[in-house]
TrEMBL record:
Top-level taxon in the UniProt lineage: Bacteria
Keyword Secreted set for record: no
Keywords from the UniProt entry: Lipoprotein
An individual GO BP term: peptidoglycan catabolic process
Keyword DNA damage on entry: no
Name used for this protein in its record: Putative lipoprotein
Stored CDD domains: LysM, PGRP
GO MF term set: N-acetylmuramoyl-L-alanine amidase activity
SMART domains associated with the record: Ami_2, LysM
UniProt cross-references to InterPro entries, sorted A to Z: Amidase/PGRP_sf, Amidase_domain, LysM, LysM_dom_sf
Domain LysM: 202-252
Parts forming coiled coils: none
Length: 255
């Protein structure tokens, strides 16, 4: 995935340019029924790529994008509908400067060092269209997996605005859990999907009375697959899959 760049040079957080090193990622959604990226993201007048970007994003005729000094909020990325109706990701701030994304809680703010998070907004629609939800969800998972790899972050450091608020480092908002809930998902599901992309394997330590078919059943895989993944480490598995020892650490597909 290659995110298009349309930096919001006119936004106050871009001008403030407070430096940050990310320690995690916050997932937001916009809280208004408008899935188009052009609502929030428009190039500056002097952006050398202005024409191409407007073609890609579409033109906001209301002049109310977030590329204005009077808008006291920002995000590093936006996910939503491009002009052609497809779902895409646009980077709106460099990831080494703070965005004004999550406000402040009683303990402080994840906008700033030493807790600064990369933050992105998903453009909400009416929250009832499964096709749009699935497209932006998958795009968001991919974005997080890439950022985790790039900045050596753990998928467990990906949280929602709501979770950041509960921890005391953000304003009291419900995003994006309220949207996930409509499709019977949670942030735990989201993090698991990010983890699947960053590391498709998980580990299992053999305990007393385990056998391979029991482990396979429990982890929704097959004995043959476990043998294939682990016979380099435990060569006897090939000749005798019936024999496993307590304490062995088996590599399994993450499900
Ligand atoms: Zn939010």
């Amino acid at each position: 995935m290659k995110a298009e760049k349309c930096f919001l040079f006119g936004n106050g957080s871009y001008k403030a340019a407070e430096k940050m090193v990310p320690v995690g990622i916050i997932v937001h959604s916009t809280g208004a029924d408008n899935p188009t990226l052009k609502r929030y993201v428009q190039p500056s007048d002097d952006d050398p790529d202005r024409v191409a970007l407007l073609e890609k994003l579409g033109v906001n005729r209301y002049g109310n994008s977030w590329n204005r000094a009077s808008v006291k909020k920002s995000a590093h990325f936006f996910i939503g509908k491009l002009a052609d109706g497809s779902v895409g990701t646009v980077q709106t701030l460099p990831t080494d400067i703070c965005c004004w994304g999550c406000g402040r809680g009683k303990k402080g703010s994840y906008n700033y060092a030493p807790h600064a998070h990369i933050q992105f907004e998903i453009c909400e629609d009416g929250l009832d269209d499964r096709e749009y939800f699935t497209a932006v969800y998958n795009e968001a998972v991919k974005l997080c997996a890439e950022l985790c790899r790039e900045y050596s972050l753990s998928p467990s450091s990906v949280i929602s605005h709501r979770e950041a608020a509960k921890l005391g480092y953000a304003s009291n908002h419900a995003d994006i859990d309220h949207w996930l809930r409509k499709f019977r998902l949670t942030m735990a599901d989201f993090r698991r999907d990010v983890a699947k992309l960053t590391d498709p394997y998980t580990e299992y330590r053999v305990v007393r009375r385990d056998n391979l078919s029991k482990i396979a059943r429990k982890h929704k895989t097959t004995v043959a697959r476990i043998v294939a993944l682990n016979s380099d480490r435990y060569p006897t598995l090939k000749s005798n899959p019936g024999l496993i020892r307590v304490g062995w650490v088996l590599k399994l597909d993450r499900v």
